[in-house]
Amino acid sequence: MIVDDDPLVRSGLRLLVGGDPGLEVIAEAGDGREALARYAADPVDLLLMDLRMPVMDGIDATAAFKAAPNPPAVIVLTTFDADEYVVRALAVGADGFLLKDTPPAEIITAIGRVLAGEPALSPSVTAALIKQVVDGRDGNRESTAREAVDALTGREREVAVCLARGASNAEIASELYMSVATVKAHISRIFTKLDAANRVQVAIRIHDAGLT
């Protein structure tokens, strides 16, 4: 589903996504509330979600979608000068984000990665977002993060540090000499132990704990 209050943006994204033989645009919505209603009638696997919209913005909508059982994947769409909104969206569970000037081929690649359980965040953008959060951290958050990270095994900590650098599952598997299936199993346990909904939340906790 494409969720954006600009009809021209929705049309462009529909043409782009619909042109890929492996993807199908099921629905469009002009704001978060409309998206929730359309999803209730016809569920989808992934939403491309604008952030700044009337009625219900992308942050509140993402939070609502992610609070539901078996939630869909959500990639938020933004401009770089709105990165504080992206941090908030990722904090409520968004699976990644794309800048609105992202090349078409990269948008398709990002959608495929998220549908496969991979992040749609480049290492440079991940680092910028984490820096924004970490710069404002306090001592309580640091101590909380250290306590959570202490619950990780040594191998889980190695995987978590790789995640914090923005590495994909395949890259982690290659670096740590393990199978992709094993990496996925470690990541699942890391998410649980760190109470994280996505890779960026893991990265923030790792940075708060002083491991990167």
UniProtKB/TrEMBL annotation:
Pfam families: GerE, Response_reg. Gene3D superfamilies: 3.40.50.2300. The keyword Phosphoprotein applies. Keywords: DNA-binding, Phosphoprotein, Transcription, Transcription regulation. The modification 4-aspartylphosphate is found at D50. SMART domains: HTH_LUXR, REC. SUPFAM superfamilies: C-terminal effector domain of the bipartite response regulators, CheY-like. One of its GO terms (molecular function) is DNA binding. Residues 145-210 form the HTH luxR-type domain. Residues 1-115 form the Response regulatory domain. GO terms for biological process: phosphorelay signal transduction system; regulation of DNA-templated transcription. The keyword Transcription applies. This is Putative two-component response regulator. It comes from Gordonia sihwensis NBRC 108236. The lineage of its organism: Bacteria, Bacillati, Actinomycetota, Actinomycetes, Mycobacteriales.
